[in-house]
Prior knowledge:
Blueprint: E1 3-10, E2 15-23, E3 40-43, H1 50-59, E4 62-66, H2 84-87, E5 96-103, E6 119-127, H3 130-146, H4 154-159, E7 162-167, H5 175-182, H6 186-197, H7 209-231, H8 240-248
Amino acid sequence: MLYRLHYGVDILGMSSVSHKITTQDAGETLLNFELNQGDLVIADRAYGTLNGVMYCAQTGADYILRLRTNHFAIYDENGDKINILSSIKNLDYEESMDIQGFVKPTGSSGNDNNSDEQIPIRICIRRKSAPDCEKSKKKLLCRKYNKGHKTLSQKTIKFNEYIIVATSLPSTVTTDGVLETYRLRWQIEILFKRLKSILDFGELPKKKEESSLAWLNGKLMVALLIEHFLGTSLFSPEDTYAQKHLERNQVY
């Protein structure tokens, strides 16, 4: 059986704020995390869904979510669907821009409701450098080849020449500011590499569900203890300000 670790990280403290182990059937979705007003969620393509956007809107959390090629529909002020690739086709290498739009809640069938409810959304885009565009294309072709696919749509190739994120942050946060903040997410990849290598979190030596969950939770406890000790370590014994700050923010 395959299991999935849903792990939320405080990007500034590099410490866990949420964790849950489920079977693979649970899927990757923001609904696996408890969000609150004032939170800022930074997540990759797997979480860049309309359900994720709606969940953030309902909880009052802000978000920066990477969009996939087959992303959800985004509308302009007239109710017409926005074609992002057409809107950014003249963007030069390493240039950035944003698009203001709206999303519509969906019914249980996944189709657009007939309601007039619209939620503002902002799309921030930066075109990669010429070498990075070529690198992205090669990576896509290699991935498709490894999966047994011989063709790759031009839309997919073109879409991956850009970093495209959806956000709820206001225009007072610049486009470049939003995109630079999204880059912090790479620290999560480093954290998971550490979990897999140092803690041997990548392989599951158990077969029964009860034993597997016990083993995974044991490993997770070790990871959380390491995070706690690192987070409460001081760079200097004389750092009394840091000590007072830590005492006010202990988490158990």
